Amino acid sequence: MAKYLLLKHYRGAPAAVNDVPMERWTPEEISAHIQYMRDFADRLERSGEFVDGQALAPEGLWVRYDGEGRPPVTDGPFAETKDLIAGWMVIDVDSQERALELAGELSAAPGAGGKPIHEWLEVRPFLAAPPTITD
Amino acid sequence: MDEALLRSLTPGVLGILVRRGADFAAAEDAVQDALVEAVRVWPEDPPRDAKGWLVTVAWRRFLDATRADTARRRREDLVEEEPAAGPASAVDDTLRLYFLCAHPSLTPSSAVALTLRAVGGLTTRQIARAYLVPEATMAQRISRAKRTVSGVRFDRPGDVATVLRVLYLVFNEGYSGDVDLAAEAIRLTRQLAARVDHPEVAGLLALMLLHHARRAARTASDGSLVPLAEQDRSRWDTASIAEGVAILQAALARDRLGEFQAQAAVAALHADAPSAEDTDWVQIVEWYDELVRLTDNPVVRLNRAVAVGEADGPRAGLTALAALDDSLPRHTAAAAYLHERDGDLATAARLYAEAAHKAPDLAERDHLTRQAARLNARLGR
């Protein structure tokens, strides 16, 4: 088993095929989208592949150390062009193929017009100690 | 083994050890040992006096641990100085714990964790699950809190307001895992109300009961938020509402108004209304005026502006809102709502989308996005 991080982007990812902002969907389309994501997570929980998932607020700040005794400098909100993570899900799967399969499925969540959004998801494997090879 | 019984006895036992002069952290360890022992022994050999048994075992554990300690002499002196353990009312001992756990030297999150552990008798694992943090993290938080209050001696009553704030924090955390924190907060506030004769304690209890009574109606089956006006009022818990109103009325009759009583009065007016249209908004605005006078809290002013919008029309609400800092939480959402009621759907749709962007949690964000979507659909875009 290996863990993968699936990243959803507010901004910074290539444009989705069905790229309509959510507030331009109908309330029913929004419900269908949310239900799809919820069902997806539930199913992965039952298959033992779900680890964790959280949505993030769009507002963020940059902070850095700025010398002894000086306050950290914060710079925000982000400029409109910045890459921005909307949320993430961690899955624990048997193979990279399975991770890609699941990411593809998540990207097919329905959006405007009830059609899949086809949004790009970023899939990042976790760094971990290599598994012991027994065969 | 009756877990509920053990949980209800724990704070009293802990309180007695603390009163006898045991350091809080050591007393807590000793009580935990006694509980483990109870779980082992009681099924075979149930005690006649459960609490007395726990006190005896815990006190013996505490003495053993104290004697084994390097600072033995000093602590033994402390124990010697204490008067012999006589029968004392359990009431004062548990009360002492409330004040200890809400001690001003603790951060709010530590105070909350310690209260749930010491007064509520919850396990570290239950508290960790409720707050969605790893058990090891919560264990550290609790032991740090115990160290902070160890050595604090309790010879005078603490600040009731601080205790109430801690209980309200617990209530507002909602729930997850196997512990419903809102129900737990109500249970603890009931205990406190039975021990402290203070109208604000009653006010907080009434407020919690009135909010809790509406919980089932607040979310739809798919988890989405249902605003007050659209809630199915037949799903409100009428027994809880009746109890909350009765407690509130008794508190108000004492004429020592405080913030919690005033908030409970607003909640009672909502709970009393047979339908959203029949809500007595004029009286609600009057209670918000009281709250502004008592707290001068900008969030209260924001809620007041929304109530003014209902009582005197959306224009009046927008005027009240305009006087407030627009960076306040939910300011944009309130403006969107009032603009919609005023008939300016385009502005309302734009503001709902903006409010969704700033929403503090997922349910609220989804709700506001839906509001924007609903108006955009009506505007044909």
Automatic annotation (TrEMBL), chain A:
UniProt xrefs under Gene3D superfamilies: Dimeric alpha+beta barrel (3.30.70.1060)
All copies of domain YCII-related, residue ranges: 5-107
Family that this chain belongs to: Belongs to the YciI family.
Protein name: YCII-related domain-containing protein
Native source organism of the sequence: Streptomyces antibioticus
Lineage, top ranks: Bacteria, Bacillati, Actinomycetota, Actinomycetes, Kitasatosporales
TrEMBL record, chain B:
Entry's Gene Ontology BP terms: DNA-templated transcription initiation
Pfam families listed in its UniProt record: DUF6596, Sigma70_r2, Sigma70_r4_2
Domain RNA polymerase sigma-70 region: 6-69
UniProt cross-references to SUPFAM superfamilies, sorted A to Z: Sigma2 domain of RNA polymerase sigma factors, Sigma3 and sigma4 domains of RNA polymerase sigma factors
Swiss-Prot/TrEMBL keywords: Sigma factor, Transcription, Transcription regulation
Matching Gene3D superfamilies: 1.10.1740.10, Winged helix-like DNA-binding domain superfamily/Winged helix DNA-binding domain
Protein known as: RNA polymerase subunit sigma-24
Domain RNA polymerase sigma factor 70 region 4 type: 97-148
InterPro entries hit by this protein: DUF6596 (IPR046531), RNA_pol_sigma70_r2 (IPR007627), RNA_pol_sigma70_r4_t2 (IPR013249), RNA_pol_sigma_r2 (IPR013325), RNA_pol_sigma_r3/r4-like (IPR013324), WH-like_DNA-bd_sf (IPR036388)
Family of this protein: Belongs to the sigma-70 factor family. ECF subfamily.
Keyword Transcription: yes
Domain called DUF6596: residue spans: 161-251
Keyword presence, Transcription regulation: yes
GO molecular-function term, one example from the UniProt record: DNA binding
